[in-house]
UniProtKB/TrEMBL annotation:
HAMAP family: mEF_G_2. It comes from Trichechus manatus latirostris. It is found in: Mitochondrion. This is Ribosome-releasing factor 2, mitochondrial. Keywords: GTP-binding, Hydrolase, Mitochondrion, Nucleotide-binding, Protein biosynthesis. One of its GO terms (biological process) is ribosome disassembly. The lineage of its organism: Eukaryota, Metazoa, Chordata, Craniata, Vertebrata. InterPro entries: EF-G-like_DII, EFG2, EFG_II, EFG_III, EFG_III/V, EFG_V, EFG_V-like, G_TR_CS. Mitochondrial GTPase that mediates the disassembly of ribosomes from messenger RNA at the termination of mitochondrial protein biosynthesis. Acts in collaboration with MRRF. GTP hydrolysis follows the ribosome disassembly and probably occurs on the ribosome large subunit. Not involved in the GTP-dependent ribosomal translocation step during translation elongation.
Amino acid sequence: MLFNWRLFAVNHQKISSLHINNICCCKRRASLERLKPHLPLGRNYSSLPGVIGNDIKSLHSIISPPIAKIRNIGIMAHIDAGKTTTTERILYYSGYTRSLGDVDDGDTVTDFMAQERERGITIQSAAVTFDWKGYRVNLIDTPGHVDFTLEVERCLRVLDGAVAVFDASAGVEAQTLTVWKQADKYNIPRICFLNKMDKTGASFKYAVESIREKLKAKPLLLQLPIGEAKTFKGLVDVISKEKLLWNPSSDDGKDFERKPLLELIDPELLKETTEARNALIEQLQTAIHRVTVAQTAVPVLCGSALKNKGIQPLLDAITMYLPSPEERNYEFLQWYKSDLCALAFKVLHDKQRGPLVFMRIYSGTVKPQLAIHNINGNCTERISRLLLPFADQHVEIPSLTAGNIALTVGLKHTATGDTIVSSKSSALAAAHRAKREGEKKHGKNNEAERLLLAGVEIPEPVFFCTIEPPSVAKQPELDHALKCLQREDPSLKVKLDPDSGQTVLCGMGELHIEIIHDRIKREYGLETYLGPLQVAYRETILNTVRATDTLDRTLGDKRHLVTIELEASPTETSSVMPVIENAENVSEDRLKVFQEAIENGIHSACLQGPLLGSPVQDVAITLHSLIVLPGTSTTMISACVSRCVQKALKKADKQVLEPLMNLEVTVTREYLSPVLADLAQRRGNIQEIQTRQDNKVVVGFVPLAEIMGYSTVLRTITSGSATFALELSSYQAMNPQDQRTLLSQRSGFAKGF
C-alpha cells in the first residue's frame, strides 16, 4: 500500500499531521514523489518521521537533521523486562503510531517476524527512526534471550547510547549483566529505566541497589516513584521538585500533569526528594550529560511502560543526557576526513528487493546509485536505493549524512562487519595518512590496522543437528535458504558432513535452531527434517608429541615432495585457534613463502579431532623441519602439514571438552528443594543462593548436555512459577567416566558433525 508524501501533506489534519514545514507542494513535487513510505495494512501509523501535532518541518530537516540533534540509541535488557513494550510506547508518544501495540496481542511494530509475535519475544533487532522535540532518534530494540546475544552485540557496535530496561521487581538479572558487559566493551553511555513499577513486588530501592552492587555503576536518581506495585501512580522529578501524575481515567497515558511538591501536602516525599537532589548534581542537566557521556555514572528513571507511565520523561532524558554522534570519539575518522566511512552491521534478505544492508554512517554521505568500495571483501558495489528504516516498513530517501543509520538495497556481497568507503583510492589515501601519522607518533605503522572498523565477534555454536530437505530435488532450494539465513545471522553455521554428505546446522541454542527451522518453512516454503539435537563438544591433548610425514606424489610430469617434522603440545592458556610457532633452528625468512600453506594445513587438521571429529583447541604446533622440493605446489604442502598434525593428535593423550553453562534459576522458597535436587542429578555445581525480594535465585554451573529440555522439567517441578537464564561460561574437561560414556554413545554417529 503506497502513499505519496504530497497526499499526506494535503490530508495531514485527518491522519495525525505531517512533519514537513511549510513546503510549497508544487515546487517540491518531484522530491516528494520519490519519498514513498511503505505502510502495513494492520496498524495505524502517523505518516512519516517526526510527525507531532500540526508542526511541519522542512524536507531537508527530515532527511538530514543536524548531527548534534541525532541520537543513535539501543534498548537492552534481560528477557521480559519490557523492552518491546517500552519501544511501543515511545513510538506512540512520538507520533509514529496511532494505537498502542502490545506484545501479548502480537501487534507490536518492532516485533514484526511471525515467530516474534507468536512467542512474545524479540529475536532480531529492529531499527526505528522517529523525531522527539526537534531531535532525530534512531532506536534499536534488541533481544533479551541468550540464544540471540549476537543481535545485541551487532547493534551495540554502531550505537552512541543505550537505555537499559530493568524489571523493578527483579533488578539486575542474568542477561542484564551480559548486555551491560557488551555495552562496556563498546564504551556505550547508558540511561537506566526501572520498568514495571506497578508490578507486585516492585522495589525502587532494591533495583537501584542491584545496579550499584552487581553492575558496579554509580546511579544518579533523576526520579523517585510515587507509590510502588498497586499503589504506583506517578513519579517525582528530582531536579525540578515536581510530581508527575498520570490521569487514571486516561487510556493511553498521554494525559498527565506536573505539580510542585509542597511541604504541607507531601512532607515525606519532599524530604526524600531534597536528599536525592542534593546528592545528585551541582550544575544540573549539563553535569548529568557530562558524567553520562564519560560513563562515570548512569541516570536512573522509573515508570511502567505497560501502564503508560514514565515514557515521555524517558524520551526527554534520551535527548538531554545521551550523546550525539559528534560527541563520540572515533579515532579512525581522522584518516577518512570527509570521505565516506560506514560499517555494515546487519543484513536482511527480502524476497523482492534482495539483500538489505543496515549501515552506520560515520563520515561522508550515502546516496542512491552510489558506487562504494568494501574494504573487507576488496570489491566495489553500487547502492541502488536508500531507505530510512521503520522496523519492517521503509521510506525511500535521496541521501543520508554522517551520524545516521541507513538501509541500503543492491549490495549483494556486503556482509556483517564490513567496512564501507567511497572508493579504493579513498581507502588507500586513508591508509597513507594513517601510516604517515603512525610512523610520526610511534615509529611504526600500527595505525593502518585501524582503517578496518572493528566488526562483530561471532560466538561459536554450542548445538548442532542434521537438516534434510523433503526430497533430493529440493536440496538446491534448501542450500539457497540457508545461504540467505547465514547472511542475516552470522551465528548460524552450516557445514557438510564429509562422511554422510548430510547438511549440518550449528546454532547458539535449542530456540535458535527451532526458529531457523520454522523460518525455512514459513519464508521459503520448505518442510525440512531435523535430526537429533547434539552438543558441540571440543577436543584437546594432554601431553607433547612429535610426528613426521612425507608426501611424495607425481602429477603428470611434475614431482611434488614435502617432508615435515612438527610437535603438538597443550597450551598454558585457552586458545580456540591453534598457536603456530617455529623451533629455534628453523629460519623464518626461508619459510615466509610457505607460511600461508603451513597455516592452512594446521587449521584444516584442527577442525576435526581424533575422538569425536570435533574442533581441537588449546593446542600449540611447533614446526621443527620442512623440506620442500622446488616446484612443489602449496596445496601439497598444506596436505602434508595437515596429515602430520593429525598423526600427532592421534598419538597424544586426548581429552574431550564440554560446554559449561552459567545457570540462574529464580524460584519461590517452597520449590527451592526440588530445584536443587534436580540440578544435582544434572551434574550441576551450585555457587550461591541469593535472595531477591520474596524469591530465591540459584546461581551455578551445569554442563550443556544435561540442560536440554530443562524448561519443561522446571515448569513441571515448580508448577510453572520458576524462570531460568543460561549463558555459555567456558569449555571444561570431562571426567574420565563421563568421557567414556559419551564416546560409547557417539560411536554410532558419523564423525565430523
